[in-house]
Design goal:
Elements: H1 5-13, E1 20-23, H2 25-38, E2 42-47, H3 54-62, E3 66-69, H4 72-79, E4 88-90, H5 97-105, E5 110-113, H6 116-125, E6 130-134, E7 142-144, H7 154-164, E8 170-175, E9 180-182, H8 188-206, E10 212-214, H9 230-245, E11 251-254, H10 258-261, E12 265-276, E13 284-288, E14 308-310, E15 316-322, E16 331-341, E17 349-353, E18 374-377
Parallel strand pairs: 1-18, 2-3, 2-11, 3-4, 5-6, 6-8, 8-10, 10-11, 13-15
Antiparallel strand pairs: 1-12, 7-9, 12-13, 12-17, 14-17, 15-16
Helix pairs in contact: 2-3, 2-9, 5-6, 7-8, 8-9
């Protein structure tokens, strides 16, 4: 992303104490409009977990967004925007039965599951609700692959949807997730093919006609490497839907998170310490006042590589970047090559770009006494 005039002006004029996140809501809106245009026949369910700030949710609700929620507090946050409960999908496949009941009481009627036990909980706590089963995908090509924690095999999904038809719920659809920060639009094809095959098997062998396919998330933000435009994802996905579903394309929903808010945010941080530590490659250690526990959890295994800028110029050398806490895991980038100006000094500010997603929501509460990451919206 390029820092917008609004963000530049805020950082220069307001200049809050670091670290903090500032989000440009106009970029959030532009990203939503681009994806909605790329997927014109899909309903967008913003993944609230990516950035649950009321400012973000209200802007998206005003644009007509629906919401993918993972907990009762997220249900309440989404409803506080004024949207109808029918615009919510409880997409977490791991829910307490009392939370299912509470969401149902609040009007939620669409629930995800991927196991027999979860399906039975929904049947007991939300009779009459629509359910969709999440299937496993490879996650190949994603920078933040999702583990086998979520989803089941297509064969198991077939049996679970047959069971759903015998319970007081409505077997409604199939969902999947091709991995977060998915830079290959073609990765949706195999998942769409699996979903379409399940649709046909259930109709032909069990008389169950499903109505919805959930494309999940995976739509990327712009970090250090280039990503295709939203239009490329839309074209690839609709080509897959046409080829695998033919003339019977069901209702389609998508659950973007970082793709809407990632590019919209910048964290401004301060250099706390620059130290020579005898690194074999001669690299300096640059310690910032924000790290893994302050909102940059996605630097785990250096999976998400944020662009980092400073106002210093001149020659630059490879460095190791770390956070401020007394935890040896709080190292941001050691394997990936990050160059920082040789003139960088303690007390300088740096800008960590494309940090609008999964930063405030991952920020620890007072670990080592550091306050959670503060956020501003412009």
């Amino acid at each position: 992303m390029t820092t917008t005039t609004k963000l530049d002006r805020f950082m220069q004029d307001v200049r809050p104490a670091t670290p903090y996140l500032v989000v440009d809501l106009d970029i959030v809106e532009a990203n939503y409009r681009a994806l909605a245009e790329a997927l014109p026949d899909a309903r967008i369910y913003y993944a609230v977990k990516a950035n649950p700030a009321p400012e973000v949710l209200h802007r998206l609700a005003a644009l007509g967004s629906s919401f993918d929620v993972a907990s009762v507090p997220e249900v309440e946050l989404a409803l506080a925007t004024g949207v109808n409960p029918s615009s919510l999908s409880f997409g977490n496949t791991i829910k307490k039965e009392r939370d299912i009941a509470r969401a149902f009481e609040l009007g939620v009627r669409l629930f995800a599951f991927d196991s027999e036990a979860e399906l039975l909980k929904i049947a007991r706590a939300a009779p009459g609700a629509k359910v969709f089963c999440r299937i496993l995908t490879s996650g190949e090509g994603a920078e933040w692959p999702l583990s086998k924690k979520f989803g089941c095999t297509p064969d198991m999904a077939f049996e679970l949807m047959k069971m759903a038809a015998t319970l007081p719920v409505v077997p409604h659809g199939i969902s999947f997730h091709v991995g977060s920060q998915q830079r290959d639009p073609g990765q949706w094809d195999a998942a769409v093919a699996s979903a379409a095959l399940l649709f046909r098997r259930l109709e032909e062998k069990a008389g169950i006609e499903l109505k919805m396919v959930n494309l999940g998330g995976g739509f990327p933000a712009l970090y250090r490497e280039a990503v295709p435009a939203a239009a490329a994802y839309g074209a690839a996905i609709w080509d897959s839907l046409r080829r695998h579903f033919g003339n019977r394309i069901p209702a389609v929903i998508a659950e973007p998170g970082r793709g809407l808010v990632g590019d919209a945010g910048v964290i401004e941080a301060e250099v706390v310490l620059i130290a020579e530590k005898g690194d074999a490659a001669g690299r300096r250690w640059i310690y910032l006042d924000v790290g893994k526990f302050g909102g940059l959890a996605e630097t785990m295994d250096e999976a998400i590589r944020y662009p980092i800028e400073t106002d210093r110029d001149g020659t630059a050398s490879p460095v190791i970047l770390a956070g401020p806490t007394c935890d040896s895991a709080d190292v941001l980038y050691e394997k990936n090559a990050y160059l920082m100006p040789d003139s960088l000094a303690i007390g300088d500010r740096v800008r960590i770009k494309s940090t609008g997603a999964y930063t405030t929501s991952y920020s620890a509460v007072n670990f080592n006494g550091f306050e959670p990451l503060r956020a501003y919206f412009v």
